Amino acid sequence: MNNIDQEDENLRKGPWTEHEDVQLVFYVNMFGDRRWDFIAKVSGLKRTGKSCRLRWVNYLHPGLKRGRMTPQEEKLVLEYHSKWGNRWSRIARKLPGRTDNEIKNYWRTHMRKKAQEHKKCISPSTSFSNSSSTSSTCTNDPTVDSMPMDETKERSFYDTGGIELVSCAISKSNNNNNTMTKHNKVNNEEQEGIYSMDEIWKDLDLLENEGIKPVFDRYSNGVSPQVWDYSLNSFWMMDGGQQEFSTNMFFPATSELLTG
DNA sequence: AATGCTCTCAACCGCACTCAT
DNA sequence: AATGAGTGCGGTTGAGAGCAT
User: Fold this and answer.
1) For chain C, which bases have at least one atom within 7 A of a protein Cβ?
2) Largest distance between two CA atoms of chain A
3) How many domains does chain A have?
4) Domain match, A166 and A249 both
């Protein structure tokens, strides 16, 4: 057995734990949301970079909306899907706060329902193409690949380096085990709102004034100290202006890597 | 209450693409 | 131009929650 095999065996798969979420959020805020392999290594998470990215993009990103699609969003999904087919990430860019995965899942459910309804309406002898075939038909639409350049270059909302709220991510993490009802999720979504850029920049100013500076990258703008203090109180010790981890065992790899 | 079915969504996989070297 | 690492995307799967019987 070689080293690579051993590494593969050590990699974790399956659902993320709360600790892993916290760890990932921390390191993304430190290093940005681009260098996933690096983050995977530095963080000590036994996950692939891909897995880290996916977790961040689909679940931990502070700009994410939760809860059911609004009628407006449903309309947009229908509209853009008819236009672009299964280009989920492209569609997602048109629905801020929604991920390609979410839209994809929604569409599958949606189309399944539609298919079932359709089956009821038509005679049993008539064959009916399922959702995937419907989708592929749309994908083959010649309009699909004729996007103007500015649209194809659009960045998804989660590419914005969303610093926003670690607390948001943590609270999501805390609710990871579906302890919230769907109803509650919707209410929280309404109450939480989304940070505006102005608010984010204000937080950045605050952050700098407090002398708290994540290392580099876009995320050098970081998160408001209040937020950190509030949301990560079990992970940070604020002591006379100095900060240190209170749970070093969660983040063992950074110092090794950065000093070594 | 127990069981089976359906729905939802997080996560994985493989392929495609981008970019640095 | 070729190559390999890193990243993004779309398809698929499986676990768990909710609902019906």
Assistant:
1) 5-13, 16-18
2) 76
3) 2
4) yes
**Residues lining strand C, beta carbon within 7 angstroms:** A 34-38, 49-50, 53-54, 86-90, 100-101, 104-105, 108, 132, 135-136, 139, 156, 159, 177-178, 181-182
Between A57 and A173, residue with greater pLDDT: A57
C1' of nucleotide C13: residue with nearest CA: A14
Rounded CA–C1' distance between A239 and C8, in angstroms: 41
**Final residue before a domain boundary, out of A159, A175, A210:** A159
Find out whether A58 and A156 touch, Cβ atoms under 8 Å. no
Question: Structure pTM?
Answer: 0.61
Nucleotides of B under 7 A from a protein CB: 7-14
- Residues 18-47 of chain A within 7 A of strand B, judged by CB, are 47
Does residue A2 lie in a domain region? no
CB count in 10 Å sphere of residue A23: 23
Closest-lying nucleotide for A110 based on CA to C1': B7
pLDDT tens-digit readout, A74-96: 888 888 888 888 888 888 888 88
**Which pLDDT score, from 0 to 100, does residue A45 have?**
86
Residue A3 counted as domain residue: no
Q: Are A34 and A48 in contact (CB under 8 A)?
A: no
pLDDT in tens, A188-247: 333 333 333 334 334 434 433 444 344 333 333 333 322 333 333 333 333 333 333 333
What is the CB-side half-sphere exposure of residue A24 using CA atoms within 13 A?
33
Question: Would you say residue A110 lies in a domain?
Answer: yes
